[in-house]
Design brief:
heterodimer, A: mainly alpha, 3% strand, globular, B: 15 helices
């Protein structure tokens, strides 16, 4: 039997094509990109060796420092928002709406599948001042506050981005965490209630510890996604005003394709990859420790 | 244990009984108050989720002067359904949809076929190094796509694939594989291996077992993974923006992004109509298959 399930020829036929495509499209280019980071030029004009000049430029580049800072700030704030909003929604589904939650779940999930560019354009118009006052500013005017040019200053543009990304994805995290909460055995909750735990105390001492694993995987998932955020930012602010809302992903894209500097673009991509791996590793280590202690 | 249960049950009943007796009216009011609170929260939530879409739809039916001169809350004074025809034809949305379909459908078919086969080889079959191979696939999920963009651009440029949709099909297939292989391997875990052993005794080769026995058994999983990957690829911007250098090759997302530059900056009705076509087109697919999408996205996430 082992000979059949261990048939080398069959393994090669089944796994081979996927492995070849995956290697050619992802593994080889990753290494290649690392090689590019030591060069200068682009695929049209050709490449020349540049040593570690790109890396020292990376260290001195204020735009990189700004983009890195923005990327981290954005990832932390949006992740916190997504997971907290998702958790509150999941609690609402499980403890208040109970069986009636299916419709609300579906509606809140809507934005998750929508094209990001469409959502970005929609929010742009929703928060705009000119040429037409958008609904948000109209609402502010109605309660006696002057219109705010949301995309004119970096801090307000940042918060519109945060609001949009939380709006877009909280339904997803709600369903994810809902799946985890439903798995908590009813008897555990019932006996905790008998012991006098209600409301916040029930959540704090029973529900939260028991849903820690799924909370951690949402956290990893969210961090991984927000560090790579690209299309929502391009569609909403395109990195502006100035380059105040430019994350590393967008800065890499602009360096490579607007300025045609592939060598330096690759160096930024390497930095982004290192950040992604480091952050994932840290979150993973911390969550592992928390889980074994809990 | 057997003694424990009845004791708990009586304590339970006693607890309920006493609270009901002590303050029936008070507890009933508290229930009603909390219900009102839940209703307010749910209503607010639905307004926040739905209103932007309603506003977008209403705005898509406004004329330019209507949009600029009337309150943003108001209904359209004349209902300009022509905005949709204009978006579809002058705005080239029809062309973009065609391009998206031509890139996404072949990529999706390849992802599912290669992913299911690899998942089978990695989970059902027995060989040294399969865990390491799975890990190599998994690593692809962490790496940002920016890392593979420039080498691929160079290759596509030098091989002359740049003027076609092939770069999109190939890149989508490569980037879609990690998640698909991983999820398929997970699904194959629940298919008992004895089944394939029995099939072998009946004389089926392992390749035939894969195709005629395992694929029908994971049909639901394939549909789920397919939907998840569909939404990922259909909504991609980065890869499409990088590899489509001419207007004729633009996908829906890239086309929409350029729409504001092309004529959307002055033609608000058609711009909103184009956004609506994208949003409501996607929503229709989602509504049709919503349970599967939710399950697929979450199971992929939980295991990723």
């Amino acid at each position: 039997m082992h000979r059949v399930l261990g048939d080398r020829r069959a393994i090669a036929i089944l796994l081979g094509p996927a492995l070849v495509v995956y290697s050619l499209i992802m593994l080889v280019p990753m290494v290649w990109s690392l090689g590019y980071s030591f060069t200068k030029g682009n695929s049209i004009d050709g490449f020349t060796g540049n040593g570690v000049a790109d890396f020292s430029r990376l260290l001195d580049d204020p735009a990189v420092r700004h983009a890195l800072w923005f990327t981290l700030k954005y990832a932390v704030v949006v992740t916190a928002g997504q997971v907290v909003a998702g958790y509150l929604l999941a609690l609402l589904y499980v403890f208040f709406l109970k069986r009636a939650s299916a419709l609300v779940r579906t509606l809140v999930f809507f934005p998750v599948v929508l094209p990001t560019v469409a959502v970005g354009l929609l929010f742009q118009k929703f928060f705009q001042v000119a040429p037409q006052t958008g609904p948000v500013n109209s609402l502010l005017n109605a309660v006696g506050i002057d219109s705010i040019d949301f995309f004119g200053s970096s801090s307000s543009a940042f918060w519109v981005l945060v609001v949009m990304d939380i709006w877009r994805s909280m339904g997803f995290y709600a369903v994810l965490l809902f799946a985890g909460l439903v798995d908590i055995p009813e008897e555990v909750l019932e006996s905790a209630r008998l012991d006098g735990a209600t409301g916040l105390r029930l959540v704090r001492h029973i529900v939260l510890p028991l849903s820690l694993p799924v909370l951690m995987s949402s956290l990893i998932f969210s961090i991984n996604g927000t560090l790579k955020a690209f299309d929502s930012i391009v569609a909403l602010t395109n990195g502006g005003p100035g380059n105040d809302t430019t994350p590393l992903t967008l800065y890499m894209f602009q360096t490579s394709f607007t300025y045609g500097d592939y060598g330096y673009g690759s160096t930024i991509a390497v930095l982004l990859t290192v950040v992604c791996l480091l952050v994932s590793l840290v979150v993973f280590r911390v969550s592992r420790r928390d889980l074994t202690e809990g | 244990m057997a003694i424990d249960t009845p004791v708990k049950a009586t304590a339970h009943q006693a607890g309920r009984g006493s609270s009901a007796a002590s303050g029936r009216s008070r507890s009933r009011r508290r229930v009603r108050v909390s219900k009102v609170w839940v209703k307010i929260v749910v209503t607010l939530l639905l307004v926040v989720e739905i209103y932007p879409l309603v506003w977008m739809f209403l705005t898509s039916l406004k004329s330019n002067s209507d949009y600029l001169n009337h309150s943003t809350w108001s209904l359209p004074t004349t209902w300009e359904w022509g905005n949709y025809t204009e978006a579809w034809t002058t705005g080239h949305i029809g062309l973009y949809v065609r391009n998206s379909l031509l890139a996404v459908v072949p990529a999706l078919a390849l992802i599912l076929l290669l992913g299911a086969a690899a998942g089978f080889a990695l989970q059902v079959m027995v060989w040294k190094g399969r865990n390491l191979t799975l890990l190599v696939f998994l690593a692809g999920m962490m790496v940002p796509p920016q890392m593979i963009l420039l080498p691929l651009f160079t290759v596509y440029f030098q091989t002359g694939l740049s003027g076609t949709l092939w770069p999109l099909i190939l890149t989508y297939t490569g980037t879609g594989l990690p998640l698909t292989v991983f999820m398929m391997a997970t699904y194959y875990k629940s298919v008992p291996r004895e089944l394939f052993e029995a099939a072998t005794i009946d004389g089926a080769g392992i390749l035939r077992s894969f195709w005629t026995i395992s694929v029908p058994m994971v049909r639901n999983a394939l549909l789920t993974v397919g939907l998840v990957e569909f939404f990922f690829i259909w909504n991609d911007l980065l890869i499409a923006l990088t590899f489509t250098n001419s207007q004729d090759l633009r996908t829906v997302q890239v086309g929409l992004l350029n729409f504001t530059g092309d004529f959307g900056a002055t033609q608000y009705g058609p711009l909103f109509a184009a956004i609506c076509l994208n949003v409501f087109g996607t929503l229709l697919i989602y509504l049709f298959l919503n349970q599967k999408v939710m399950k697929g996205l979450t199971s992929g996430a939980l295991k990723g």
